[in-house]
Design goal:
Helices cover 59% and strands 0% of the residues. With 134 residues, it is an all-alpha fold.
């Protein structure tokens, strides 16, 4: 049987003790639509992230690891998939610029609360050194 992300969300909803009505309201949907929502094998990223926030569980990661694309999941979750030297060569060939990304994992509300301060500090430091943030 295929992996059904909607069913996994329903299980977590029950585990967290949240009612269908409360969950539907937080998801900005009608309660009657939950019946179909819980049967879906695929959901859009926004819905997965919203359910993750509401139920304090990473449904996006769970979906990737159990979907038909699971053989590619290492590419999504392994930050070392491409080596630093390979990455540098890609940047050298495309332009003389460098970029980087940061992957944060933690409580959604805490990260959202603290990220504003963090980004302001990064921007200030970058500007002092003559860098441009985009």
């Amino acid at each position: 049987m295929d992996f059904i992300i909607g069913a996994e969300i329903k299980k977590m909803l029950r585990k967290r003790g949240l009612t269908n009505i409360a969950f539907a309201e937080k998801m900005n949907m009608e309660e009657r639509n939950l019946y179909h929502f819980f049967k879906k094998e695929a959901l859009d990223v926004d819905q997965l992230l919203q359910a993750s926030q509401i139920l304090d569980f990473d449904f996006l990661d769970l979906y990737i690891k159990n979907s038909k694309f699971k053989q590619y999941s290492k590419n999504f979750v392994d930050p070392h998939h491409i080596s630093v030297s390979e990455e540098q060569e890609v940047y050298k060939k495309s332009s003389n610029q460098i970029s980087f990304s940061i992957h944060l994992k933690g409580d959604f509300n805490k990260v959202a609360e603290e990220m504003s301060n963090f980004l302001q500090l990064v921007k200030k430091e970058a500007e002092q050194r003559g860098f441009e943030l985009s």
